[in-house]
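can u do me a favor
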């Protein structure tokens, strides 16, 4: 009968991206989420863990436990998964440069639980290309990084066959401005580079190539343009099927299946009227669940208040319940693909496929994804796309409800008390983590740890698979920083191209435009200060690698007539101040999205005072709660900008105003 429910397909894995403060606190959070019906774990690691630093390193200051859980050694990993049956779990770990290390720790802990490694299921993200382009947690140069990935894939095929050793991640490409075509093309180009390297290494026999391809998974972004995003997923699957069949000769259709997980778009979450983020999240989730033939295998949703700060457990529960209502209460899982036969959908998929394959071919002609990273082509393309999108928003061509249209609002009860609308990390937590690290080092077998590190360096200098030496480091009590520094000693470090210099003009300075008015302010101010050009230092202190905002400020300031000094990510306050003094800049702009602003910004201010440069105005941008913004201004910061300040040209005009104020120049009556 028509009113009776049909048999349902099995729903996707439901995850919440989570981790903070300490391994113990995160373990409690995981067990609570699993009890609420979450069906998989998604581990967020803090920035020192992601970038290969121990919590007591200078660059880790202010970052420990902020955006994820600190895992410094085997003891931390034990506490993180205490009382969680890993053989029954599907665990996703968002880890890239140090992925091999974290997988080794996970394997050892699982074995201590009595688990069979061959039965472990989960994913290590392990996509270093997008780190060079958008997220900034890379450590080693492209060549050695690709070797680490290759060794991990070969090791898992032989030893942890149900594990997905790489999760090629276009999610952060969209966050950095990628169009759907760029998102698919750059992800597929990365997959080609990885598979070519694995098969060229000789570590996997010909008859097992299909097993390698079958364990390649993807992690994508779903934005609010519902039709386009859903068609993007269908195009992704179509292109992957062709590449694996034609380039690698994979005949088994199950091996060729496009397997992906998704987190919906955090870029589109707004600080203004944040309640609107709930309907955005729902619409974006539908884009990756409604189409059965292109449905995500795993979904994790951000929380409505992530543009304000760290979500609380209740906020994460709300996002989990959104998934559960769709899967359990609706009839979605009872039907075949509801878009099959749609000429509108098919036309859009065909268009995306054609344009994407042309871009993939362009990248292959350059020598592939790694060459396109090193040349700066991919980064410059993303910076340009992001600049164009920001320009459309500022011009009102792209509407964002509550931001550039329908801005009037009733008082919001959800944010009436901002201090309790988000979770905060105890500032004293870092000292406790550092103290525990020192205790671990004192109590371990130092000789075994040193021997394991020596063996790792020797393996890195040769051609052996690095995973065996890494597993022994895990068992020997080596720390995250020690493992990474052993490989840094052999491989070196890498500073990725910023893409700022190669980005084309995004906003024109036509007569009467806002940018023309700001250019006039810049020119007049420079002349009053003695000629030359105004100089702006854009700095990223600490380990926060999300450089999209800093890059957009740098590009627009350049277009407004500034000389911009931007040296990329991962700098100490000391390095930033040294550059500001050496370049004799008129303003220092700091971008921090990780929550470490309370530690790092006052340090920059104090170092400027010590250098005799207290008159240089400092501005700060990032995800900064109102109370923190007030504290920063009280400490001497000239201006604080948060996601609600979306008008970049207006921000550049404000920077000029602060320069004039700092130099006791009268206000300029130039409209912006």
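np, heres the sequence
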């Amino acid at each position: 009968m028509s009113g009776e429910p049909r048999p349902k397909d099995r729903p996707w894995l439901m995850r919440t991206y989570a981790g903070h403060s300490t391994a113990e606190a995160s373990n409690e959070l995981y067990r609570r989420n699993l009890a609420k019906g979450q069906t998989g774990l998604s581990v967020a690691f803090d920035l020192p863990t992601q970038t290969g630093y121990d919590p007591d390193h200078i660059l880790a200051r202010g970052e420990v436990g902020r955006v994820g859980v600190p895992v410094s050694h085997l003891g931390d990993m034990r506490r993180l998964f205490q009382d969680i049956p890993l053989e029954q779990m599907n665990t996703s770990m968002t880890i890239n440069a140090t992925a091999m290390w974290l997988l080794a720790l996970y394997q050892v802990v699982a074995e201590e639980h009595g688990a069979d490694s061959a039965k472990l299921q989960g994913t290590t993200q392990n996509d270093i290309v997008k780190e060079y382009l958008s997220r900034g947690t890379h450590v080693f140069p492209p060549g050695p990084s690709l070797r680490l990935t290759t060794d991990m894939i070969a090791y898992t095929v032989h030893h942890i066959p149900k594990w997905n050793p790489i999760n090629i991640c276009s999610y952060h490409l969209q966050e950095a401005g990628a169009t759907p075509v760029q998102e698919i093309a750059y992800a597929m180009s990365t997959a080609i580079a990885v598979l070519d390297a694995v098969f060229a290494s000789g570590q996997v026999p010909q008859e097992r190539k299909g097993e390698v391809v079958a364990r390649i998974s993807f992690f994508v972004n779903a934005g609010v343009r519902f039709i386009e995003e859903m068609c993007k997923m269908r195009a992704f699957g179509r292109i992957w099927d062709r590449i694996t069949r034609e380039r690698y000769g994979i005949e088994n259709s199950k091996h060729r299946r496009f397997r992906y997980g998704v987190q919906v778009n955090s870029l589109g979450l707004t600080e203004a009227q944040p309640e609107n983020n709930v309907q955005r999240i729902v619409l974006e989730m539908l884009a990756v669940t409604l189409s059965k033939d292109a449905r995500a295998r795993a979904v994790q949703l951000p929380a409505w208040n992530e543009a304000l700060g760290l979500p609380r457990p209740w906020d994460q529960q709300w996002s989990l319940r959104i998934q559960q209502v769709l899967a359990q209460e609706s009839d979605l899982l009872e039907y075949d693909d509801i878009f099959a036969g749609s000429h509108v959908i098919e036309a859009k998929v065909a268009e995306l496929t054609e344009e994407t394959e042309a871009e993939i071919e362009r990248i292959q002609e350059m020598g592939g994804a790694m060459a396109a990273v090193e040349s700066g082509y991919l980064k410059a393309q993303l910076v340009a796309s992001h600049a164009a999108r920001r320009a459309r928003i500022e011009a009102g061509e792209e509407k964002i409800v509550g931001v550039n249209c329908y801005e009037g609002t009733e008082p919001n009860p959800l944010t009436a008390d901002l201090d309790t609308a988000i979770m905060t990390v105890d500032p004293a937590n870092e000292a406790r983590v550092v103290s525990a690290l020192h205790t671990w080092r004192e109590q371990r077998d130092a000789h075994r740890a040193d021997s394991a590190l020596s063996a790792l360096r020797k393996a890195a200098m040769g051609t052996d698979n690095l995973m065996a030496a890494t597993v022994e480091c895990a068992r020997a009590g080596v720390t995250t920083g020690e493992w990474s520094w052993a490989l840094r000693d052999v491989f070196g470090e890498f500073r990725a191209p910023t893409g700022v210099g190669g980005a084309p003009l995004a906003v024109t300075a036509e007569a009467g435009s806002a940018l023309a008015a700001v250019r006039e302010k810049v020119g007049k101010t420079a002349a009053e200060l003695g000629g030359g050009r105004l100089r702006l230092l854009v700095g990223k202190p600490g380990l926060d690698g999300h450089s999209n905002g800093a890059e957009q400020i740098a590009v627009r300031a350049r277009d407004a007539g500034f000389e911009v000094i931007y040296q990329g990510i991962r700098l100490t306050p000391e390095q930033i101040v040294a550059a500001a003094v050496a370049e004799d800049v008129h303003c220092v702009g700091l971008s921090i999205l990780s929550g470490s602003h309370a530690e790092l910004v006052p340090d920059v201010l104090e170092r400027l005072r010590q250098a005799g440069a207290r008159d240089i105005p400092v501005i700060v941008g990032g995800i900064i709660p109102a109370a923190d913004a007030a504290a920063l201004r009280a400490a001497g910061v000239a201006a604080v900008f948060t996601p609600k300040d979306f008008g970049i040209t207006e921000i550049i005009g404000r920077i000029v105003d602060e320069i004039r104020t700092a130099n006791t120049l009268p206000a300029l009556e130039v409209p912006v």
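The mean pLDDT is 91. hope that helps!!
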